[in-house]
Amino acid sequence: MDPTNRGSEAFHDDEQSSTGGPRKRRTPREPERADTTPGGQGPVRVVQLVSGDYLLTVNPVDGSEIEPCPPGSLPARPERHGPEQRAELRRAAVPPPPARRAGPQLPLLHREEERERLGRLLSRGRSVRLTGPAGSGRSVLLDAVAEDCADLAPDGVVRLSGYRRTAGDLLHELFAAVHHAPLHRPDRAGLMAAVQGIGAVVILDDLEFGGVALDELLDATPECAFLFSATPDVPAPSADSHVEEVFLGGLGRTGCLELLERAVDRALTDEEADWAADLWFESEGLPLRFVQAGALLRLGATAGTADSEAFDAFGERPAAEDGAAGEDDGKSTVPLPTLAQAAAPATLLAAALGEAARETLRFAVALGGEVPHQAHLPALVGDTHADAAVGELLACGLITPVAAHYRLATGVADQLIAGYGEEWARQSATTAHTAAQHYAWWAGHPSVSPERIAVEADAILAALAALTGEEDSGHRAAAVLLARTAAPAFAAALRWGAWERCLRYGQEVARIAGEVGEEAYFHHELGVLALCTGNLDRARAGLEASIGLRGVLADKRGTVAGRRALALVADRSGLALGARALPGSTPPRAVGAVPPLPPRTGVDGRTSAGEEIPDARSEQSAAPPAKAKVTDDTTAIISRLPGGAPAVGAAPAAAPRPAGAGKGSWAQKLMSGGNRRNLLAAGAGALLAAVLGTVVTLGAASGGDAPRSGPVKPGQSASQQDGDGGLSADEPAAGEPGAPQVPARRGGRGDKKGNWGDEAASPGPSGSATPSSGSETGSSPGTPSKSPSGDTSPTPSKTPGGGDQTKTPPVDPSPSKSQGGGDQTKTPSADPSPSKSQGGGDQTKTPPAGGTNSASGPAPGGKPTGGTPVA
Question: Where is this region: Disordered (predicted)?
Fold first, then answer.
């Protein structure tokens, strides 16, 4: 075969020309174009799945799209798994076996009584909680009980892990373990209906919750029998949950010695037996401590004696020759470790292991105790045989199985940090950065399925948690890329608990790094996730934040996706997208559906127009008081006088209109649109009109009460006192030069309502008002004449003789005026007014019967008569 051209030489005839000329090379194919992720790893995976009644399209580029699921896309009723599928799921629920086991296989010892009791309780349909400290062998006991109960329930045995799971996550995992429903995640109602019919023995290891959450899990699955495994620090079940408690303690002395012998794969010497007895007393018989002690004895790891040259590449001591082995059988040439070293053996065991195993431990410490899958160790460590490190660590008791992966045993991480503190602390961020880069490349590869990525969810989340608080920009960029790549895979694999945690880590590190586009993506995904889970308020907040950030970046495609999801949120919440209610307020109600609050009543039982009412208790403005009916003849003046007294000139308020009668008032129309500023402006204008109206009314009412004080005129005496009428000798007579002039005033005859005509009066020589249209003679005694000021206020009169002034309150208009060519004559009337006598005597006070004083003067060009002139 030609190494350059693929295929045999016999299959290149098609490349030759028909004329027998030289062969022509084919034009290389252009690579297929596909959408790529922001990191440029390759084509994206767009997955469509059904969540409740939503059709969710996981789009890693612009963000997931959600819409109501069409009727034709709804999944059918899920079918149950068969026996073969259940067995495959059980194998996938436990960690894979190590590539090479470095130690002996340890069986379950001295747990027959607990094993029989647990099986008996489960066969009766009872739920049991197995409580024991870390390292007591709970997981090994659960494996044995699961084998005993394989045929008890119709749905068999279901293995679940409660490590970092909530009750809702466990219900969804139980549904997926029993039913075949690919790319389908039921809503809350559908999930409860599906799990109620499941009849299985559920083995749940590493439970992390109790109390009400555990009661919710038990109530949702009445046909299941649970076997929980938890540590003593986990909250206990409630009193009415009917869960049996079984405590698992340490092994006895005999059981610990037997376990140690199986761990070293030989019989113990007397010195080792005494050392094991002291260790049993110190460790309270925990099996994990004796597995670690057996590794110390097997590897000969003691302080100052453990060197890497004494072990081969796989961490085992080379086999000795047969003769030497027979001579040294039963004797130990290596000193035993102390009890302090046996209590914290992680550092000694790490020194005795190979370089690949130590690098694996370093990655596990940097990732918060999570051990990467053995398939990733060669790429992370840089050794092709690094996958064998998992077997070494498992045989030494440094790692334990958790869910579908391995994790550092209890206390191992603290011991390693204490032993390699400074060195590993400096390299912790760099190690996590290396793991994040590797997982980002691996998760973005098209050949990796979302289910495989979900298996490594704990390690990926641990890498994100380690890099979130770092100040280095490179670490932040790696964390953002990892979160952006892994989050869609978690969503497609239906691991929505890991999806949410990944999105929150990504949103936080993107905010710190200042990557606005990535932060908008994570906000959008969190909003879509909240919408799928039924949390509408959280969905609205996330989507609005995403739309705002993408609007700044002018990302049209992302903004459109966000607005579509936000419109769906508004539709499900029952509100219009443009008129959303304020947080904490009640939804808007129809105008007229509820009658307005009754306004306060005044003294006469009526309500003044625009009077204040008590504030409403809700965010909405209170309904305004009844609107006064304003006609063309009256003007409504809003008053804020105390006591509810109506304002001067205010029209009486109309009775309140019944609720729902006719159309809403202007205030209700303003309130219906949610715009309170117009209502506040109208109220301010009404208040201003009330103040101005009050000022004008009070000024008009008090204008004629106070006497006007003017400057001293030339015709008056300097010694004139207040209240003195002046000296008659010095005062000129009416009509003579120097007499005070009376300004021209408009006059006319008034009607009964007080409306006066437009007759004009011109001043005469004596200052009296002379009508321009002739004289009015023969007026009846009761006919009123126009007052100069147009009102009925009293007018003082002066006597030319110098008497005291008298002020007569008028009752009726003054007598009429006459005009003639001769002397003025006074027409007697029924309502006389006081007059001034020209003599020097005292003034006489004439009791008035009503009316006001009026002045009449001589005809133009004439002189006043000798009679008593009327001032």
Answer: 1-48, 61-111, 579-666, 702-871
